[in-house]
Design a protein that fits this description.
single chain; alpha/beta; 8-stranded parallel sheet; 3-stranded antiparallel sheet; 14 helices; 11 strands; about 15% strand; globular
Length: about 350
């Protein structure tokens, strides 16, 4: 049986299908609950959220489903040099975006940049809320945090982009490891080396990860249909994580223009860029991405570059200019066929059954 794997047994799921967590306000309790109710593992990305909001989100998802779900946090919530950003650096980064601000009739956020909640306060709220599963990216939490999760009955899932990262996460004693290939949308959550030095594809990464550790491997990156699931399982994965196809569903919290762009992604293609947030990530190629593509352009470290671009995104969507909004997307977007999460999940299961 294709759905009887080490992952489904460990997490008590009917199907080895994980909905990728989306940070930046793109996740929704409804989407996470829909996937979990269907027998997969729904996820919610809480990146950037306050502790109170994290507690509220866990309560919201619990009100929608009695099935297991995951809440995702970033272990590293700011680049090392973010605390030292100067006014001159800020002004140089603003100057790059100034023509676009002017075109949309808005200004940049004020200096100094807004500071997001840190991981330590976020994870305290998460452990207090006790979601069934805690997933994390951009590093490995301290042993004491993972031990507290175990003592509270919270299962844990880490995320790796290289085999060395897989081994580092495995040594921490997690319940599963997402091996995410460079085809995936959103940020590249590398933490041992730079993201640019860690760009392994899914087909290369997954079998090496499965050979390196005994912990169940979840394959991510470029998977959007039954063929991708079958390939990942054949490579040694115990489950798959699907992000872009679920992000395009009506139940996600993505703006309708973002969902429409994903469904038309074959026309645009994707690129890896630091221009959207200061950290390397894969998004749709559009006018904004093209304007920010040159690595020589002045940009702020994460998360401050993201704050500058978020202000631009808000104005662009309000003015009906999706070409000037940052839209995350994986390379599997041209495979999108469904607008509803339940229909997508049913299709994945049907394709695998066939």
């Amino acid at each position: 049986m294709w759905n009887d794997t080490a992952f489904t047994r460990r997490f008590e799921r009917r199907f080895p299908i994980v909905q990728g967590p989306f940070g930046g306000g793109l996740s929704s309790p409804r989407l996470a609950a829909t996937v979990s109710e269907a027998g997969g593992l729904g996820s919610f990305g809480a990146q950037g959220m306050t502790p109170d909001r994290i507690r509220a989100v866990v309560a919201e998802i619990r009100a929608l489903t009695n099935e297991p779900f995951a809440v995702n946090l970033w272990v590293s919530t700011a680049d090392a040099r973010a605390a030292d950003v100067t006014r001159a650096e800020y002004d140089a980064a603003v100057a790059v975006l100034a023509p676009l601000y002017a075109e949309l009739g808005v200004g940049p956020p004020p200096f100094p940049p807004h500071v997001d909640p840190g991981f330590d306060e976020q994870v305290e709220a998460l452990i207090e809320a006790r979601p069934p599963i805690f997933s994390f990216i951009f590093g490995v939490p301290a042993p004491a945090i993972l031990e507290r999760c175990r003592s509270q009955g919270i299962r844990t899932i880490g995320t790796a982009t290289t085999v060395d990262e897989v081994r580092a996460i495995d040594a921490a004693g997690v319940d599963a490891i997402v091996a995410t290939g460079a085809e995936a949308g959103g940020h590249r959550p590398s933490f041992l080396k730079s993201a640019e030095a860690s760009l392994m594809g899914t087909v290369a990464l997954v079998p090496q990860a499965a050979d390196a550790v005994r912990t169940p491997i979840v394959a991510a990156g470029g998977i959007a249909d039954g063929r991708g699931i079958a390939a990942a399982l054949a490579l040694g994965a115990a489950a798959v994580q699907i992000g872009t196809a679920f992000l395009a569903c009506d139940e996600s919290n993505a703006h309708p223009a973002h969902r429409a762009a994903l469904r038309a992604a074959a026309q645009a293609g994707t690129l890896l860029t630091r221009g959207f947030t200061g950290r390397l990530g894969r998004g749709l190629r559009n006018a904004l991405a093209e304007a920010l593509e040159s690595p020589s352009l002045a940009r702020l470290p994460y998360p401050f570059q993201g704050h500058l671009v978020a202000a631009l995104k808000q104005a662009a969507l309000a003015h009906g200019r999706p070409d000037l909004a940052p839209f995350w997307s994986g390379q599997s977007a041209p495979l999108i066929r469904h607008h509803r999460a339940a229909a997508l999940f049913d299709a994945l299961v049907h394709e695998m059954a066939e």
